[in-house]
Amino acid sequence: MDGSFAPLTVAAYADQAAKTDRSVEGQSLAFPLLGLFGETGSLLSALKKKQRDRASSVAYSDSVAEELGDVLWYLAAVARRGSLNLSAIAAHLYRRDEAWLNIPDETLTFEALQPHTIVRSAVPIPQFEETLLALAAEVGAMVAAHRNAALIPGGEALARRLTEVFKLLLKASREVGLT
Predict the structure, then answer these.
(1) Among the ranges given (24-28, 65-69, 127-131, 162-166), the one the predictor scored with the smallest mean pLDDT
(2) Disulfide engineering: 100 pairs with which of 10, 39, 49, 156, CB 3.0-4.6 Å?
(3) Secondary structure of residue 49 in the 3-state scheme
(4) Rounded to whole angstroms, how far apart are CA atoms 125 and 11?
(5) What does the longest C-alpha to C-alpha distance in the chain come to?
């Protein structure tokens, strides 16, 4: 191994995630939304267990990393099944566009989305709890909006919700020291 490292692009991640998706023809957006909701709940549960018994939750960091990854996978699935490009959502977040432009950036990396120095910690910082509660609220609002038929595949409302979830997921990752 020569030690070279190529940062993962959001587009490449979305492509790889799509290959592992076992979607069924005609399946609604509700299915991946259920997964996103459930994995967000699992992330909250991992934090709750760590707060309840710091000594017994030895696998906390690994559990949080796995759950953050699962939330990201479902975020990609919701975007794809909602006729949106995850790269366009990430680019919208990165550029801080006022209006939803739906312009993907195939070269945008996760590293570019998290340019800060990240320090990994086995103990959750206080802000992490607030970020996870905000993430849960946003995912819940997205589920409610879908239930009320307010999310149209390819539409701006879905794109904005996914952008907010992505932003909170990146923030939570930084707070626990994960890239």
Answers:
(1) 24-28
(2) 156
(3) helix
(4) 30
(5) 53
Cα distances from 98 to residues 26, 31, 160, 167, in angstroms, run 33, 30, 11, 15
Q: Which long-range contacts (CB under 8 A, 24 or more apart) does 16-24 make?
A: 17/73, 17/76, 17/77, 17/80, 18/76, 18/80, 20/73, 21/77, 21/80, 23/77, 23/81
Q: How far apart are CA 20 and CA 34, in angstroms?
A: 17
Query: How many whole angstroms from its chain centre is CA 32?
Result: 13
| Structural contact between residues 174 and 116, judged by C-beta atoms closer than 8 angstroms | yes
**Around Cβ 160, how many Cβ atoms within 10 Å?**
15
Q: Which amino acid is at 132?
A: L
- Is the distance from CB of 93 to CB of 166 less than 8 angstroms? yes
| Rounded-to-integer distance, Cα 12 and Cα 106, Å | 8
Model confidence pTM above 0.70: yes
